[in-house]
Amino acid sequence: MEPVSSRPPRARAGSGSGSGSERTVQITDTDRAVLAFAAEHRFIIAAQIAALLGVSERTAGERLRRLSDAGHLRRHKELHRGPRWHQITRAGLRAIDSDLPAPRGFDLATHRHDTGLAWLMLTARAGRFGALAGVISERRMRSYDGRAADRSERFGVRLGGVGPGGRDRLHYPDLVIVTQTGHRVAFELELSTKEVQRRERILAGYAADRRIDAVVYLVESPWVGRAIERSARRMSISDLVRVQRVSMASGVSADGPARARIAARQRAAHVTKRERDR
């Protein structure tokens, strides 16, 4: 599987605005870092870029506005009292030579989860889960798998059976981290419970995947965590599955402030490679 680097790709001068006209725009290394982060997610908000760059939210917002005016980002505000969302455009992806596709449109049904994933990546990059060799987003995994010819090299966890068009039925973690010791940890941000059969099908896929050394479920609700733990015990894979509480500020919803944070209550990436009697 390809090595993963958190270093933003080298960029050429960006071009293009939302109107379709092409124009040369100079972007800085900091702009490239912002665009590289935006490329990994469905959308981003100013508070996340403030955390990424170590600047004020106002300063981050001004940079996002400039990148939007240049056509590298698309900004919109779907929620009346929530923060303004920014999505990378095709022009923004071209500006950093990214091979990722443009993200699909804003989805109100999943906006809180999607916002949480960006915070989760920032949390991992900040070292809250230990020293890492790589952090891989779901968008990155899906994009890579769409081009991978060898099934064994795909990131997707096989669930058995076939899906639409006869393709393998796959599940993608919300995030994968690779520790400095080479262990691979899958993260699932579980803000609501799944139907038991679906949850246990996913857990069975993880249990059968020799590439995954641990699965960390991050939950807000204790009852969601208990449901996962019950399934893991029933399937005799409690050594593989970790459940950890997280706190997410209400800023990712319409009735909260513009700030949000996701913080694990304990370090999640200290794993020992699974012992397998095979």
In short:
Helices cover 32% and strands 21% of the residues. It is built from eight helices and twelve strands. The radius of gyration is 19 Å and the shape is globular.
List keywords for this structure.
single chain; 278 residues; alpha+beta; six-stranded mixed sheet; 32% helix; globular; disordered N terminus
Arithmetic mean pLDDT:
81
Lateral arrangement of strands in the main beta sheet = 5-8-9-10-11-12
N- to C-terminal distance: 23 Å
Choose one word for the global shape.
globular
Strand content: 15-25%
User: Helicity level, as a percent range?
Assistant: 25-40%
Radius of gyration: 19 Å
| Main pleated-sheet profile | 6 strands, mixed
Helix count from the secondary structure assignment = 8
- The helix/strand order is EEHHHEEHHEHEEEEHEHEE
SS-based class: alpha+beta
Runs in which pLDDT lies below 50 for 5 or more consecutive residues are 1-22, 250-261, 263-269
Number of strands: 12
